[in-house]
Sequence to fold (327 residues):
Amino acid sequence: MKAAVYRRYGPPEVIRIEESETPHPGEGEVLIAVRAASINPMDCHLMKGRPLIARLAFGLTRPKHTRPGVDLAGIVEAVGASVTRFGPGDAVFGSCRGTLAEYACAAETRLAAMPAGASFAHMAAVPVAGCTALQGLRKGGLRAGQKILINGAAGGVGTFAVQIAKAWGAEVTGVCSARNVEMIRAIGAHRAIDYGEEDFTRGDARYDLIFDLVSNHGFSAMRRVLAPGGMVLAGGGMGMDGLGAGRWAARLLGGLLASRFSSEKMALLSAKMRAEDLAELAFMMERGEVTPVVESCYSLYETAAAIREVARGHASGKVVVTVGGET
Fold:
């Protein structure tokens, strides 16, 4: 099979499309013929080996895991022992390692059935970003009638968070660049703030929850626009490299400490891939409450260009790589 591979740390140009051995599903695993995969910011940072401390886990001088990609959508080719939920021919989406390839093996517990009529390109955009948004809004305790601000609303996680929060009956404000203001309104935000024109931390509005996916403000600044007892949920910055990671960590730790002595709180989101959450997102898509926002699609041979686009940090929604068959 053909697969995207990188054998040294570096920029997107280190990616090569090579012939690799087709994997075999182990117990509890499903072999998937990949039709589409999407790029996450973490893919870009791991490929660069940044921040450097991450190399303690992922390889000091060269990467231990040479196949990028964790999101996928495709068709089940074969199943391993004890798999009960899927069989050959089923259309599925979910997460595993090395999804930028013609085939990949995923644990049954990290997959869900695709909704009828959904495209592979759209479903490949869902797993990491969708689950992060869903779990973040749950952790923030968002309820109908509350006010939420999503800082970084036009990104992969942000576009899902806007739509889920709207579906739950919240009043949604999204912070984004000027070029994305209309898109954020179109997907459900009651108000869109162009960060180039307005600093939301100096506004008059008050929010029950701030879902911070950018980490460009400290807790003390965001606390000024929190309603009494409100929360800042930090879901951005974990992919930063170099000094940026250090500043993010210092800002986060300072905010977590300060919030211990305040009625307004700050929390850190660590999302996990769960089949039940993927199934809930699929159900919301079937009801028309959520539609993945896909900025652009590339072929497998254009994987380096796709990663380069995400690494620039200005993609609207998700960037998808199509692999084979209909998308």
About this structure: The mean pLDDT is 92.
